[in-house]
Amino acid sequence: MLTTATALAVLLGSVTLAAAGAGPAAADSSALLPLKSSGDIVVDGVHHRVFISDPTAGQVVVTDYAGTVTAAVGSLPGVHGLELSPDSGTLYAAVRDADAVVAIDTATATESRRFATGAGAGPSYVALAGGKLWFSYGSSGNGNIGSLDPSGVDPKVTLGQDTGRTFYDAPILDASAGAPGTLVAGAPGQSPVELAVYDVSSGTASRTAYAFDPGSTGGGNLQDLAVTPDGKDVVTASGAPYYQAVYKLTDLTADGKYVTNTYPNAVDIAPNGDVAAGTSSSYEPDVHVFKQGVPTPVKQYDLPDTGTPGDSDLLAPAGLAWAPDESRLFALSKNGADAYALRIYDAPTKASTTLTVNAPATAGRGTSLALTGTLASSAAFGADTKVSVTRTDDESPAGKPLGTATVETDGSYTLADTPPAGGKVTYTVTYAGDDAHAGASATHEVSVAKSAAALTLNNDGKVYGYGSDVTFAAHLGTTYKNRTVEIWADPYGSDKPNTLVKKGTVDSHGNLSATVRLTRDTKVSATFTGDTRYAARTVTSSAYTRVAISTSLSGSYKSATAWNQKYSYFHQSKDPVQNTTMSMYPERTYQLQVQRYADGAWRTTATEYFSLDRHGRDAATLDGTPPIGPRFRIRSSYIDPKSGDNVNTTTYGAWKYFVFTR
Fold it and tell me: What is the four-CA torsion angle of 59, 63, 67, 70, rounded to 10 degrees?
């Protein structure tokens, strides 16, 4: 069972990377497969299914084009070679250890018929040619070819069709609609390579060409072969030489090559003749795509490392298969932890393209900026190649097309834009692709500075009496669409929250007012939340509030006006009492100050702080033996922050004047 760490590693191998020309590229997507081994892979273009044989588990696993497993056909011990009928209705599977060829209904992915091939004639590979199903069987010097007719009630199995006893083991088989009466066979894993061609149009196999070490390359360890759609050639994949060799069916002489790299092990040919060639290459590309007859690849893919670190995934032998419409190429890979994955390459025959886009990282709103970039590929572009540009911002969250830019002969392009909105602006440049090039896109983000909104708030720094109702007026200048202002009041002290006083649309003059009752120092804020073109802004106004103080002197025997003030008169034996009431705050104290008039000025004789009770009251007694005659005055005050808090501004109480007599 695959561990979580391994599974994640395989999935991470599906990340798409761009690559130019024939350089390495990564799989467009991948999916884990529940395989213990692999034999063959076939693609059904009618039902959009992929069939993979698993000899060890005795099953054919079925996936959709995304690699999702949709079914598994079991009870197929040793199943290996697969062949799809021309109408894609039936998949034929060579089931070696059951001595049978099994027909699988491709629509339902279930076994529909089983053809016994006889004891000891367990088939390894299958191919349709000349109106019959041909299969290879045997080992240890007894490799041979048999045939059966899958269309009738009696399959009419005929063994020993290779009368020349060419092969040591059951050979790899293939055929092509371009040569309907021709069958090609190759010795698997043998060095040097051994090939044979048969005319099977009469229902029996007649050898027409044979080669031991075809092309005199010294190649060996044949892993896969495929007949070209036109029926002219066979392309082989053998461990050596390091290319997929091409041989004529007429005489098996060399007819070209598709140059890959170390240890070729797979080949499949699309209906239009394009070639997918695979190699078992740890540190080089594993999948190579060629246009028909062109020896250098148009695109290559390097399998990632999803298993043991430093141990790259490898392509499974014969692990390549085209979708019949050539829209996809499927590759079967295996990592160092024996985990299999199906890799799906989209548009494999189109040359990779690399698209870049550059722009300033920052810009001013309403200021023109230049978008530049390049479009590159190993395949030349046409004279009128264009890229499309889209701008996405807060005013156009779904994207606004800006038109196209023409790609110059050196691959460069330029487009100017003036972003109307501020904030994050994303430019997306897209190349749609064509018959020869894959599409590509690139993005670039620009931080566009918004314009500053003019916002003011009155009454900053002013001082008000306790309980005053004060009108605060905010003024908002030019903006784009948002004309809403919020006015907040935040009284000093942790026990009072910041409170929204008013929210509304400013009037035609840009004004919005709100009245705040002040009992403490208060920070009043006006906030404009911004819009797509003007930045959010907050301005504050600090309004200071006095405490409420009332004082009185008690214990006098009379009061009278003297020296232009009202004086209280006390007998020397009577202690005056200063009564103080003040707006309260927890642990608030007040300052008591006494002054005496001497030498033509009032001079402080005592200053002391006293606590207020929970109602904000206190009565302070002036005791002792005072002098008779001199004038005195007394007051109670709140001193910020010496009175124990800072929630109000310093407030001095009124002076109370008094004199002592006998």
Answer: -100
The token duo for 335 is 């990592």
* Cβ proximity of 448 and 534 under 8 Å: no
Closest of 288, 276, 285, 287 to residue 326, by C-alpha: 276
Q: How many Å apart are CA 264 and CA 217, to the nearest integer?
A: 14
Contact 317, 224 (CB under 8 A): yes
Q: What are phi and psi of 300, to 5 degrees?
A: -135, 150
Burial letters 46-71, b for 16+ CB under 10 A, else e: ebebbbbbbbebbbbbbbebebebeb
Instruction: Give per-residue burial for 563-578: e unless 16+ CB within 10 Å, then b.
Output: eeeebbebeeeeebeb
Sheet holding 41-44, edge to edge: 41-44, 49-54, 59-64, 69-73
Nearest alpha carbon to residue 287 among 25, 469, 613, 4: 25
Q: Which amino acid is at 486?
A: E
Banded model confidence at residue 401, pLDDT cuts 50, 70, 90: very high
CB contact at 8 A, 391 and 424: no
Q: How many CB atoms neighbour CB 308 within 10 A?
A: 12
Asked if 486 and 502 touch (Cβ cutoff 8 Å), the reply is: yes
Mind listing the pLDDT tens digit for each residue in 336-350? 999 999 999 999 999
Distance CA 128, CA 401 (A): 53
Provide the pLDDT confidence category of residue 283 given band limits of 50, 70 and 90: confident
Q: How much is the pLDDT for 28?
A: 82
Where do the domains of the chain lie, and which CATH numbers do they carry?
Answer: 119-259 (2.130.10.10), 353-449 (2.60.40.730), 455-545 (2.60.40.730), 549-661 (2.60.40.2550)
Q: Are strands 254-259 and 243-248 parallel, antiparallel or unpaired?
A: antiparallel
- Cα(297)–Cα(553) distance, integer angstroms: 108
- Output the CA–CA distances (angstroms, integers) from residue 545 to 93, 618, 647, in the order listed: 94, 22, 8
Pairing relation of β-strands 484-491 and 455-457? unpaired
CA distance 226 to 175: 8
Residue 15: pLDDT above 50?
Answer: no
Q: How far apart are CA 277 and CA 266, in angstroms?
A: 6
Return the residue matching tokens 């002098």. Answer: 627
What is the percentage of the chain residues whose pLDDT exceeds 90? 91
Determine contact, residues 133/101, Cβ cutoff 8 Å: yes
Tokens 């991948």 locate to: 30
CA-nearest of 537, 539, 540, 572 to 557 is 572
Tokens representing 146 are 């048999």
DSSP state of 156: -
Distance CA(392)–CA(492), nearest Å, equals 44
| Residue of 372, 448, 373 lying closest to 416 (CA atoms) | 372
Mean pLDDT of 532-546: 98
Q: Is the pLDDT at 448 greater than 60, yes or no? A: yes
